[in-house]
Amino acid sequence: MDDNAFGIWDGEIAAELPQDYDAALYFIGRIRTPWVQRKDCPKNARESNAVCTIEVDPRWQQALTDVASCSHLILLYWMNRSRRDLVLQVPRHYGIGRGTFALRSPARPNPIAMSVVRLLGVDGTKLSVTGLDCLDDTPLLDIKPYFASTDAVPEAVVGWHRTLKR
Amino acid sequence: MDDNAFGIWDGEIAAELPQDYDAALYFIGRIRTPWVQRKDCPKNARESNAVCTIEVDPRWQQALTDVASCSHLILLYWMNRSRRDLVLQVPRHYGIGRGTFALRSPARPNPIAMSVVRLLGVDGTKLSVTGLDCLDDTPLLDIKPYFASTDAVPEAVVGWHRTLKR
């Protein structure tokens, strides 16, 4: 665990969280990765060739029917170690305060991460994939087929990020 | 509401749901669309030019900082009318049983939908977008910037779907 993993940095702002929750989730499996500490996780999942294993709860095995025919999947998973009240946060590698909804940081009101992964194979309830950067044992929420027709936008721009790199 | 919206069709299989939930969600806003019944929703969001409005709860306004610089966003939202126990389901327009995790159907253990939308503008806590196909008043869970570098895979293939279209 990082120092200050639950803390707040200069320039960060927290909102008051709602009193009640509105809906509830089932963990449907676990993601096995080589990374057990945050500092070990790759900064950009595309830069990593590490093969990770998605272990789906046997309860859902039949829901994996036809998944093997997909070249890429969307995974939703639960970043259970993140605080949920930050509205403005300062990613350490950028050093500038940004709005939470303009960042992919795990700290957000609903800490659901979304990753696009390449599917290497399916063996029973285990899926081998590349393209992840999360901690070992991260709870899995959903698996979806990736449709290029609706999900791929190669021309998309994140303005604040492009400015940064110039 | 459709006939049999909560029912089960020939060829569909339900799993027993876990006894307990594992995590909980806050609704952070609402999605306003022109569609109040399922039968009115477009089948393919890319075929619709309808402008929809994302109404974010004022609590989260500062989290929208920098979002206006994004050309495209990922929205996560809650398909609160769907049953959660189907592992094999028969989409009516295909007529063949498929595994839930090979489909984008709202019926899934965690009914979180993911859509990539084009951002037209931000006005306070309201975002104008295109690319949605959900019902009016759908609860919003998250807004993320769309990064082409990690999210766009134009060559991705959903094998069962390609076969179907031949």
Q: Biggest interface between protein chains, with counts per chain?
A: A-B, 77 and 77 residues
Global geometry of chain A:
globular
Order of neighbouring strands in the sheet with most strands of chain A: 3-4-9-8-5-10
The assigned structural class of chain A equals: mainly beta
Q: What does the radius of gyration of chain A come to?
A: 17 Å
Number of strands of chain A: 10
3D architecture notes:
The structure is a homodimer of 166-residue chains. Chain A is mainly beta. In chain A, 7% of the residues lie in helices and 31% in strands. Chain A has two helices and ten strands. In chain A, the strands form two sheets. Chain A has a six-stranded antiparallel barrel with strand order 3-4-9-8-5-10. In chain A, a hairpin with a 2-residue loop joins strand 8 and strand 9. The longest helix of chain A is centred in the C-terminal third of the chain and has 7 residues. Chain A is globular and about 45 Å long. The mean pLDDT of chain A is 91. At the A-B interface, strand 2, strand 5, strand 6, strand 7 and strand 8 of A face strand 2, strand 5, strand 6, strand 7 and strand 8 of B. Strand 2 of chain A pairs antiparallel with strand 2 of chain B, so a sheet runs across the interface.
What's this entry about, in short?
With 166 residues, chain A is mainly β. The first copy, chain A, has helices at 148-151, 159-165, and strands spanning 13-14, 23-25, 29-32, 52-56, 72-78, 86-89, 98-99, 112-123, 126-130, 138-145.
